[in-house]
User: Fold this.
Amino acid sequence: MANSKANSYIRSMCERFGDDWIVAVKPEDIQRSGKRIVKDMVRGVIDYETYGRYFLDPKFLENLIIAVSNELDINTLYLNAVTFYINNSGIMVPNSGIYITHLQSIYYVYNTILNKLLQVRMEQNIGCLADTTVLLYEYRNHLN
Assistant:
């Protein structure tokens, strides 16, 4: 179901470095690209039949888990801070409900992706990611 015309992070790395691109990248490069990889997963532009094997590579998977976990932590902090401020300041901020909904959506995306990646690590089964796009596609516009 992946859009074959879209250029995912993994596809671009394969085109740039070949099928063994994972050897050429540093762990921190994978972590820095975490947001893009999550966007690719949510938008359905990763062909798991072709590129799914990279999700089973420990170097790729572990560093993607680190990146997603860090983003989840940061966005949880933002969500909690904004919620605390709105609930305790007594000041009604315009569009605060929209902003909280946006932060909740980002939290949901990263939490879902993290759980899926942890499941892949535990089961060593790329099939765990098969329904990721279906679960998260409606949230694609919340990722920046």
Notes: The chain has one domain: 9-142. The CA atoms of residues 116 and 129 lie 6 Å apart. Residues 1-5 have pLDDT under 50 and may be disordered.
